[in-house]
Amino acid sequence: MNAAISVQDVYKNFGEETVLTGVSHDFEEGRIHGIIGNNGSGKTVLMKCICGFLLPDKGKIFVNYRQVGKDMDFPENIGLIIETPGFLPNLSGLKNLQILASLKRKIGTDTIKENIRRVGLDPNMKKPVGKYSLGMRQRLGIAQAIMENPSILILDEPLNGLDKSGVMDMRELIKELREQGKTIVLASHNQLDIDELCDTVCVMDAGVLTVVRS
Amino acid sequence: MSKFRQVCSVASYNFRGWRRNPRVIITFALAFILCFLLSDKAVNFAKDNKTTMQIVEAFIWTFDDSNSILLTSLLTIFLFSDMPFISSGTPFYLMRINRKTWLNGQVLYIVLATGIYMAFILAATSLVCMSNSFIGNKWSLTAAILGYSGAGNAVALPSVVKTMEMSSPYVCMATIFLLMLFYALLMALIMLTCNILKGQLAGTISVFVFSLFGVVLQPKVIAALFSLPSSLMYKANVAAGWLSPLNQAAYHAHNFGYDLLPRLWQSYVIFGVLIILFFLLALRSVRKYNFNFSGTEG
Questions:
Q1: Going by CATH, does the domain composed of A1-77+151-214 fall within 3.40.50.1370?
Q2: Cβ neighbours of A206 in B, within 8 Å
């Protein structure tokens, strides 16, 4: 199988603190890759490095065979959700996604509405995002990540804040996305999510990534 | 065209954050109070002399002074205290653009926000003297008394004859507005560049150093530094006029045809070159910038 994301001997320090220590891993296409680890273990930093937000002090990261930070600033065709999705609090969910979609102009309002429905929200809801519950915001974050039909999804704690039925729905959605051939990197504290969803599992501990299931 | 749309979108994202934002409200409220306090001298002078003012004269007499320019500009730093404008929504933007577009958007936001802020200052000072003013484009009797009688020096208002003889109130207002805008923009660009290069603390320190440089570089300091006798004070004035960015921003500290101080167009060029230089430096630095978003560490 081909590697959609290839992390090669990546080191990242913040001042004196080493956060990633020689991380190397190939994330193969069309699979769900789980990363589990405690707070501060370096999961999010690795994801930020993959997305190009943080630049490694040493090592290289390739996404779809193009080097992040050299061939491109941020990988194209990636959907992303981070722990706390940030939206403009005064605007509705639909308006927020319309603003984001206007940057690439790849999709129209109908596609945005369809994706909002897909995560279990009402696209015609006028309520501003500032009044959404954490779970609703999380769902909107997932809709934002998938709306432009990216081939790779980086999901950092995507099930945080969701109620039981929300977790079930999102698990189904993630499985459905895998069926569509998407490569998904999923970070979670929850062993159950990782066990149920992921094809490969890595443990991140003190900046070292170890494969426990491949 | 699509890049320009993206740049505008990044800038408008920052402006959307202004709504009900306490920091922005406080900045504008403080700016109004500052205008009220600073222009008080000019307004009271007119009241005491029972004369009227041209509506923009309060702005002209107040902001032809380097200390007023410094105080007003420092408030913009409060407006931009969240520089380099990274929030939990930023990653969603970044994934759809590139670093250069993001920075161009931030710079556009800084330019527009500074322009709005300066327009507010102009409106606020005009409002303060509105009840005793007229809108015609001619100098008032208050201005004439201030300039010709020497009363301006007595109350420390920089109304000088050359100002009145060289231009009309609205032209003078536009010049002062542009000089203040350039000064505040340069300050904000220095802050942004240092922020990107070395972090937020460095950005704040850079503004402090830039302001201190302007404040310290006064004719008296230069005269003391080089032990210049009072007969050579003129040289100290010229040196301060060229070297101090605050003096470059003060309208009266310019050459109107009979001294060696910088001409207005020279100050515009100096500010313009420095602003472009810092913008290019920021553009270069952003290539290696690490974006850190709050609440996402794990």
A1: no
A2: none
